[in-house]
Amino acid sequence: MTVVENYGSLVFNDLVMKNKLPKDIYKALRKTIDNNTHLELDVANAVAVAMKEWAVDNGATHYTHWFQPMTGTTAEKHDSFISPTSDGEVIMEFSGKELVKGEPDASSFPSGGIRATFEARGYTAWDPTSPAFIKDQTLYIPTAFCAYSGEALDKKTPLLRSMQALNKSATRVLQALGNTEVTGVTTTVGPEQEYFLIDKEDYKKRMDLVFTGRTLLGARPPKGQEMDDHYFGSLKPRVSAYMHELDEELWKLGVPAKTKHNEVAPCQHELAPVFDTTNVAVDHNQLTMEVMKKVADKHGFVCLLHEKPFEGINGSGKHNNWSMTTNTGVNLLDPGKTPDENIQFLVFLTAVIAAVDNYADLMRLSVATAGNDHRLGANEAPPAIISIFLGDELTDILKTIEKDQFFEKHAKVQLETGATVLPHFFKDTTDRNRTSPFAFTGNKFEFRSLGSALSVSGPNVVLNTAVAEALDHIYEKIKDVDADSLEEKVHEVIKDAIIRHKKVIFNGNGYTDEWIEEAKKRGLYNYPSTPDVLPVFIEEKNMELFLKHQVFTESEIRSRYEILLEEYNKTIHIEAKTLVEILNHQFLPALSKTIDSVVTLATKKKALSETLSMKTELDEIEKFSKAYDSIYESTLKLEEEIGQAEAMEDELKLAHFYQETILGRMEEIRQVADCVEGKMPKEFLPYPTYSELLFYV
Ligand code: ADP
Ligand code: MG
What we know:
Distance between the termini: 31 Å
Structural class: alpha+beta
CATH architecture of the largest domain: 2-Layer Sandwich
Bound molecules: adenosine-5'-diphosphate, magnesium ion
Shape: globular
Number of helices: 21
Low-confidence stretches: none
Strand content: 5-15%
């Protein structure tokens, strides 16, 4: 099969629908997908029949409602198409009702108090805007997941609501600007995904990786990432074979995997797809993470998606490239050749700036997880302070608007390589800034603070809603202005927004301490850790935003806040308990074996000759014994603290206790342990070291 034939071959996409569905049914379904109209049951019935036939033709025996509960991963329950007949045979059946609605037990998924076990009913509802596909002989139907009361229990429902909110607000603004052709605006996302590949056999021997996804102990290898020789380095055959199969599997599923390369850290890689409508991009990213793990297993690898699997080398993130597109195909964040004259672009640009300035706290919240706390602000990923990088040209344009000056276009400069055989081309007018959490990159914004394991849903819910709100403010100011004075009024609105929100624009180095100071002076939010930022979810200003745009109800917000807290606490609880187990079962016994071996050596030496020097052995015994005592004592304390945590009831207080006390204790143990690990004989260590994990793939 060629790539073109292979691509989307397992997707119930537009072409398949067009071929399989009666014309009127196809039209009705298209209308639902394009204009978010309600879908009638007779249409659903016809689609179900076509879908089943297509799925069975392609080897499917089962179907599943595929959804995204608040666990962060996806969930599925498989039903076969078979229906027994009276003569003892079976036929393959699938109805419109089964397509549009499923009834999983909601009580076993996190609900933050919305669902109690005694009222377990939950529903999954077909999302026709994300195409169904076949995986493992099963027809996967993307669905939203909600409680009996209609409250969302998943990550898709609020995302769809936020896209609806942005659509409404953006379309109104465009029409008020005189762009009456446009009747809809959608947001687009291209998530770049980083990951690590390590050997499966090594992985199995590391209890920390198995239980927590990250190493809790491990001395630094002699070589890390300091030689910069992995980034964009040539792919090793084993890795290349993996990436090749990954691409093919993703293409079959209609995921437009485009770019792949080695990342900065050893064993670290990246995959980026071509961008898509946000809803589809979110589903595809979930699918990508799943397929990454599955294909890794086939190649004898384990794919690590944790944000910080190894200390001392870069962790993994996810860059959320985001923009807005009209139904006439115009990218609203494309500045064009003369951005200073492109009023429409400037309106949408200032709306994004205002949104980020007003809701930077929610943006920080949307990327807050226990794993991501290890990256943000650690000079490998953006700082925890959310600011915007615009680049020189746009910053200058905004300055001239603010000061009522005339903008002088930055001249395009030819790239001088000094070698005449090389092709000549123009440089971009702005360099890149890798330290910024939210950077303008030509015709889109790149939100760079996401951790690699995160569903991209949350950050986009915040972006869409915050920008919708900013657009509403603009709309209120221009809606009643007549055509003659419109341009002047818009100019005034933009200028006003720039003055108020320019404090969030920062083009400098976000990794410096000066920036932390400067950001504080500017009054920007800075929430270093997850427990610090979670409570902003239930602050009045933020609740109002979500309620106004009907993205969350109050009980949905409160339940999600609970879920986030619980998730954080459980994560660190598991990490702490895993560390205790490794220390008691593996590390301390290995250390005592080490001490024993030196004692044995000393005893033998002494037996050989009373006059031989014992200095080295005694020094070693002292050093190892000190470390042993220290780790032993700290482990006891850690166990005691885990007990204290288990008795605490207030989840927020508990989160702070985990963050400050327990993580602190784990770090203290790690420092001592990592120091001695490098001096212990390898055969005593029951698990592979960093050197083996990172440099032998
Ligand atoms: P980088 O240089 O940041 O690593 P990549 O080419 O790896 O860039 O990734 C850029 C991502 O941005 C791709 O997924 C691409 O499809 C996406 N992208 C491009 N244009 C848009 C847009 N208008 N909206 C959303 N995402 C976009
Ligand atoms: Mg990027």
